[in-house]
Amino acid sequence: MAKKKTNTKSSTKKKIKLPSFQLSSQQKLVLGSFLVIFGIVLCIAFVSFLFTGEADQSTLSDFASRDVQPKNWLSKTGAWLSDLFIQRGFGVASFIFAGLVCLSGVYILTDSNRTKLRKHWFWGILIIIWLSVFFGFFGTKIDILGGTVGYEINTYLQDFIGKIGVSLLLLFGVITYMAIRFRLTFENVANLFHSAKRDIKDEFSTANNELIVPVDNNLTEEAEAFKSAFDIKEKENLQKDFEDEIDEDLSSGGMTLNTNITSDENFTSNTQTALEVNIAEEDTDDDIESDLAIEVAKFAEEQSETDNLSDKLVEDFGLFDPTLELAKYQFPTLDLLKKYDSEGITINQEELEENKNRIVDTLKNYNIGIANIKATIGPTVTLYEIVPDAGIRISKIKNLEDDIALSLSALGIRIIAPIPGKGTIGIEVPNKNSTIVSMRSVIASKKFQSSDMQLPIALGKTISNETFVVDLAKMPHLLMAGATGQGKSVGLNAVLTSLLYKKHPAEVKFVLVDPKKVELTLFNKIERHYLAKLPDSEDAIITDNTKVINTLNSLCIEMDNRYELLKTAMCRNIAEYNAKFKARKLNPNDGHQFLPYIVLVVDEFADLIMTAGKEVETPIARLAQLARAIGIHLIIATQRPSVNVITGIIKANFPARIAFRVTSKIDSRTILDGAGADQLIGRGDMLYTQGNDLIRVQCAFVDTPEVETITDFIGSQKAYPEAYMLPEFVGEESGTSLDIDISDRDKLFKDAAIVIVTAQQGSASLLQRKLKLGYNRAGRLIDQLEAAGIVGPFEGSKARQVLIPDLTALDNHLENEIL
Ligand SMILES: Nc1ncnc2c1ncn2[C@@H]1O[C@H](COP(=O)(O)OP(=O)(O)OP(=O)(O)O)[C@@H](O)[C@H]1O
């Protein structure tokens, strides 16, 4: 069934398939050498044509006749081919064609990158055409320089844009080519001119120096002493002049150019030596300047070396596409989601009037006058915003919550006094006929579809009927709580569905913990697309509490590994890291890889805390504190919002919270740090907070059959070979199968035994240090030592007891074991 569905989907979105040629090594050798030889043949024929072409013209018509012998070095075929390419084709530019054929052969032989070859062909053909037109521009008849194509294009173009137009067009062609191929910019050209100018200047000054040097060399010692004394004096004078000038200028309040010039002139006309020295000094300055310029240029080049490499890689292969492995993956379509009859808000004018009158009357009974009242109708609740008369205390209205509820004879009345940022008081009154907010409507909304959030979640609709979309990556973890039957599971499904509609399997992975064993089982079908699991574990959805501890610890290892990667890549968060990886700036050989977001969903968190306590709380708190930057996000749901479940540590690390209806104000306080959740009406009515305001949202409804169709749709498509593997974690207490086979023992078993017995301390970390092992291997060794009766069982935080007192006893023990 599922398969049929996919087929219908894929038939609607048929893509044009490009044939992909996969050649065997032999085929490559044959084809490659054929192309190389054919290229050489063309080249020989073309060269020969330059000398024999004219003479061979007459023989071309008698191709079949054996009496006629052309002069071309490759006889008839050579004459025909070169006539076809040069005379009737593109003129001498056809040599490039021969080169391209040859090059193709080399590429196939060496199995080099085809993208590059395609690029050579593309540019090669453009150059052939350009050259042919260029040569044709100068010819008055068809000749071998431009060939027929060059001549014809020229005459055609000249009829429309004239000779000047064609020459400008050719010039434009060159500029475009240079700009695209060699990344020529206006600045490059300007720099080129500048450096040329500097070169000329340098040459000029070197020539001057050469003139000066002999004079300097011929100076007698006396003259030299005189010269340097003079120089110093001149310099001092110059310095003094300059300082005087500055003083003068400062005192006169402005610098006069004339004075400057005069002093310069005076200085110049003083002596010839001064001039020489000056020139020499200038030269040195120039040298320094040019040296500096060169250094700066070098520095810039060095800096951009990796960039250049990655740019080149991107140019050759394009940006890295993480979705490539499942390139044909199709996102679930909207029609998999149901439309509901009771969708769409219908305004009941009577109900509105009635409620309004009751609110006004009740408040009047308590002497509260209303200046203004306005209603906003939401899917399940209507918000009446009132502006009380001046001088009324807000707390007075707030205290009337129960009285208003009584007079309206309605549950779930909530008073927001005042509405933040509005200056009004809000009274939320549930609608008599609530409407369902379908998942379909929120997924289809423009807000969700066009959102560029990292992990967008369409939670439902607000009271003003706006689709409420939040970014899980920004939250960065979510706590969901509410009494049983109030819509938590639906809420979790809405979150997961949103991500399935927006994120490719390569971009996000879920770790699902479901102690109830029934809520999330449907997601088993998408295990190889979207789920992450521990190596060796059978089910991707974790239902066993002990496995949860391992998974959480494994996620902590994944977090540490990711931080390490981010550190080496010098990125601050996963988005930057992935962007860098996509731009091919990170080398996969250094362990870098595209990192998918990981969303850990824990349903029934209370159950976990009750059974595993600190062992769960600690890794959860660690993840919650640190994992945001590396793309691990937590969603925990609980139906028991008591303080021993939602502890201080958990609360501190989960600023984003969703409260469904709870039974008591205390529970509401535990979740939201305030009342409100106890006044909700249930069935997906919820309050959302991200640390500040409370937003009332009607959760989108997605039914189990809908989730099933979506998971069927995804599950029937091509998947990865296995689920995303989390790092292995071996807990101290786990895997102690005491019947470990002697032959299966680690090579370092004996060494480990010696270390443990010598130190009389049975801990894995000791082995890690002494034998330089990873945690997992050390853990396995400890298990084997336990199985061999060398260390005792796991004793919580204490090190295991060592059962063998010394090395001699150990030897005896091991010998007996073999016997
Ligand atoms: N957003 C919603 N819109 C309309 N109805 C809803 C919505 N959410 C939940 N409901 C109704 O409430 C019922 C219970 O919801 P759900 O199973 O999600 O509750 P729960 O809090 O997960 O309960 P439990 O803790 O027992 O699993 C649903 O079967 C559905 O009829």
TrEMBL record:
Compartment(s): Cell membrane
Keyword GTP-binding tagged: no
Bilayer disposition of the protein: Multi-pass membrane protein
InterPro entries the UniProt entry points to: FtsK/SpoIIIE/SftA, FtsK_4TM, FtsK_alpha, FtsK_dom, Ftsk_gamma, P-loop_NTPase, WH-like_DNA-bd_sf, WH_DNA-bd_sf
Ranges that cross the membrane: 29-51, 90-109, 121-140, 160-180
Residue numbers binding ATP: G482, A483, T484, G485, Q486, G487, K488, S489
GO CC annotations on file: plasma membrane
Primary localization: membrane
This protein's record includes keyword Nucleotidyltransferase: no
Protein name in the entry: DNA translocase FtsK
Organism: Aestuariibaculum suncheonense
Classification of source organism: Bacteria, Pseudomonadati, Bacteroidota, Flavobacteriia, Flavobacteriales
